Amino acid sequence: MKSIVRLKKVPANNPMTTHIIKLIVILFTVRIVLCVNQRPNIILILADDLRPTIGKYGDQLAFTPNLDRLIERSCYFTKAYSQQALCAPSRNSMLTSRRPDTLHLYDFYSYWRTFAGNFTTLPQYFKENGYYTYSVGKIFHPGVSSNFTDDYPFSWSEPTFHPSTERYMNQPVCPDGSGTLRTNLICPVKKFSQPEGTLPDIESKVEAKNFLAAFKNRSQPFFLAVGFHKPHIPFRIPDKYFKLYPQTKFGNSTNWRQYGVPDVAWNPYTDIRKRHDVKQLDIPFPYGPIPSAFGMSIKQAYYASVSYIDNLFGNLLSAVDLNNTIVVFASDHGWSLGEHGEWAKYSNFEVALRVPLVVYAPGITPRRIDNIVELVDLFPTLVDLVNLPPIAKCKRFSKKKLCTEGNSLLPLLKGLSARWPDQAFSQYPRPGPIPRKNSDKPRLPKIRIMGYTVRKTDFRYTIWMRFYPRNFSSDWSQIFGEELYDHRFDSAENENLVDRREFKRIRLELRSLLKKQFSFGASLGRPQRKKLSWREALLYEAYRPQILQPSYP
To answer: Does residue 446 carry a pLDDT above 70?
Structure first.
């Protein structure tokens, strides 16, 4: 007969039971702390309006020794793309890993948590997983689109830092030849002569270094985001950087509209037209052109601004312990320097969407990566790099708080021969089919056309169609223009091949791909305020100024 062993029940208030439970809790807590402390720090550095004007990216005019040195030790992506060539939509898309059509943000005037969905951000996820998060300078676009707080306290462990001298960006602080202060586009200055004796990006660099010094001996890992304003206009930087680039380096400025491109694809660069020195040129609206000599001055100022940022970047990096820190350098979008006769972002052209993306990670072998990637890929990539719980892919029209519409770049960083889609999707809105004064930055209620574009290995295809802002739907039966560029022979996108019979098959294939990606139905309905939990609502109300809700026609 089998013997039966009966276990004696131990009372819950037994001292031995209590000690065992305490020991288990202590061991579990220690394990969590050790895991957190072993994770590397992260520094995300963003430039504003920076195309890949960098020496190691092949630009022989650019003087960027500090970025070049980091690139030699890093993985750098030669074909990385923004999801929209405008600051707020691009930054919110990158930091939430959701596309502009998901966030319903194509301008500056809505906050995704209340307008589209209470989506988790990249710094928020790291904060929720034991990181101390801090933002310096321009990371989120300031204002309504980040709740006037840069999404604090959701994304950041403490209030964000903005340079006090930011407020002079659009003020008359640029001396002309007579010493009169103007609101110029091109603005070489002496630092000590400027208000408060400094400039915004210098202030941000100093603050970031102060943070690094304060955190030097702390065991908690940190996520530090630093946003530099340049080379965003105006080109107000120390005059010494202009001396690196004599105008003769640039020759005659490319400044013409290419044949066969629909008017809707074009932008009239209204922001630079508002500057005092540009106004004096009396440039015809909307197509210009800008005088060739002034175009060379713009190029000189842009390149000088890039070298200025490179110097600040190098100074900041000198304070970073690269043995336990991941460093990411990127931009929110590019900028046209006369290509297609344009001098701005605000388009679906390659020069407006392509950005530098550099990832330095201890233990990752440096390499050049030519696969096509997107800024929405950055969130899941950093999560995987530090071995946090992975993020699931979003299902179509998903309103989940945490998911990604991108792909982790970790397989590419590790050099694995994984299958990769090699495609990037972007978009840009227009108020109508021909350029007008609000074509560059139409507010949501005024958007009537959406341009969707896809970049594949050999081609870029763009289609402009009717868009309805009331329910964020597109009508594929109302087309206002198409573009097709063959990057094997025309990397500058100067010849639109959309009407060439020999390219009909590839045009239809890419159009089908775009329709699959962006075919949103009217069933999405009118935008509604999204419901927050009671805890989130308390935080939101405590830190929000009045939110401006878009009105609809």
So the answer is: yes
- Name the E strands within 119-273: 132-137, 174-175, 181-182, 186-189, 222-227, 235-238
Tell whether 130 is covered by a domain: yes
CATH number at residue 329: 3.40.720.10
pLDDT for residue 5 is more than 70:
no
The residues that are catalytic are: 87, 141
Residue 158, number of CB atoms within 10 A of its CB: 12
**What is the predicted pLDDT for the residue at 96?**
98
Asked if the structure places residue 506 within a domain, the reply is no
Q: Is the pLDDT of residue 331 over 80?
A: yes
Cα angle, residue 49 at apex, residues 297 and 370 outer, rounded to 5°: 110
Give residue 259's pLDDT band: very low, low, confident or very high (50, 70, 90): confident
24, 78, 218 from 348: Cα distances, Å = 57, 18, 44
**Residue span of the structural domain in which 104 resides:** 36-423
* 0.70 exceeded by pTM: yes
How many CA atoms lie within 13 Å of 549's alpha carbon, on the beta-carbon side?
10
pLDDT at 187 over 80: yes
CB-based contacts of 28: which residues, under 8 Å, 6+ apart?
A: none
Q: Angle CA(473)–CA(476)–CA(480) in degrees, nearest 5? A: 105
Residue 240 in any domain: the answer is: yes
Partnered with residue 369 across adjacent β-strands are 77
DSSP-derived pairing of the beta strands 449-455 and 459-468: antiparallel
How many structural domains does the chain have?
Answer: 1
Judge whether residue 313 has pLDDT over 70.
Answer: yes
Whether 540 is in a domain gets the answer no
